[in-house]
């Protein structure tokens, strides 16, 4: 069934349905086990393996490079569909898609050719950038690359290493001997690499967003990139992955609440109808949830158009135009963020108004939607976004493109 038939609106571009069709049976398989995985804390190794084999990790690559040639709006629409099946899987692949986007933007022909081939083969990358400690926020990474016994080696410890447990490679943020920021790609199975599933958040519990430890991991010089050379719209890109994931959660909420209302037989003596499926007040709640999911998807795809313009501007020899496109993409992502977050967090609460107390049983698994949405909405604090948007509107101040998190030096 197409997006139009489901009343979610047409997908981006005439070829979207053909692009999405091969993946939808896999999405359905993932969705069928999503609640059981969440209840049993069963990490989605099999789901990610199926997606790798189907070429999902390469959807952004050009067709001639072994990919699907998806535009950014098409890509984010696919993420919405995947997130409706299981938002944990999307989050676990977020770092891989960001790494892939960087490869698509690089002007280093050798690096591009090497990684396009790896990604086309189904290899994926996880992330290891965030650190716990004072230096991470404003100064330098405590994770370093230095020479030892004639080889370059990586040492350090990272947290929020989302997706690395499922990946073939890990993209690591580090400092070189001079203290400059660099990015390092290492094999997850390399000697000295340990990835630990110690993420204990109440939401997105299956993303393996825990600790990664690096002890004298040998690094090839060709796998080091200066941090400043990474793609310029990366902050907006990573935020849009969150928004697509939230929009997908909205669709999952809409589907779950509608199914529960259809199946529900218990009612109240003071209800407006004999059955919940005929109760106009219950139907109103279901409709409000579905409308929120629809709006979240539409807003996300509108912001994705801004990212597409930033991507295209990178390949035109006009630095000023590229800078402007990046700034606008970041602002559109910020403007979308607070609205989409509010819509889905509210929908995740409203669903219980359409049902009875039995809907709160753990076995129903409906609480996972709020837990997952709340966790995603906490990654990039919403409280700063309205100020940034307002500062642009009033004073023309451009948004910050890159930022780090950590204990302040004081």
Automatic annotation (TrEMBL):
It comes from the Bacteria. Residues 128-217 form the Acyl-CoA oxidase/dehydrogenase middle domain. One of its GO terms (molecular function) is monooxygenase activity. Keywords: Flavoprotein, FMN, Monooxygenase, Nucleotide-binding, Oxidoreductase. The keyword Oxidoreductase applies. The keyword Heme does not apply. Its EC number is 1.14.14.21. Residues 242-379 form the Acyl-CoA dehydrogenase C-terminal domain. Gene3D superfamilies: Acyl-CoA dehydrogenase/oxidase, N-terminal domain, Butyryl-CoA Dehydrogenase, subunit A, domain 2, Butyryl-CoA Dehydrogenase, subunit A, domain 3. Pathway: Sulfur metabolism; dibenzothiophene degradation. Residues 28-123 form the Acyl-CoA dehydrogenase/oxidase N-terminal domain. Pfam families: Acyl-CoA_dh_2, Acyl-CoA_dh_M, Acyl-CoA_dh_N. SUPFAM superfamilies: Acyl-CoA dehydrogenase C-terminal domain-like, Acyl-CoA dehydrogenase NM domain-like. InterPro entries: Acyl-CoA_DH_C, Acyl-CoA_Oxase/DH_mid-dom, Acyl-CoA_Oxase/DH_mid-dom_sf, AcylCo_DH-like_C, AcylCoA_DH/ox_N, AcylCoA_DH/ox_N_sf, AcylCoA_DH/oxidase_NM_dom_sf. Signal peptide: none annotated. It catalyses: dibenzothiophene + 2 FMNH2 + 2 O2 = dibenzothiophene 5,5-dioxide + 2 FMN + 2 H2O + 2 H(+); dibenzothiophene 5-oxide + FMNH2 + O2 = dibenzothiophene 5,5-dioxide + FMN + H2O + H(+); dibenzothiophene + FMNH2 + O2 = dibenzothiophene 5-oxide + FMN + H2O + H(+). It is found in: Cytoplasm. Belongs to the DszC flavin monooxygenase family. This is Dibenzothiophene monooxygenase. The lineage of its organism: Bacteria, Pseudomonadati, Pseudomonadota, Alphaproteobacteria, Hyphomicrobiales.
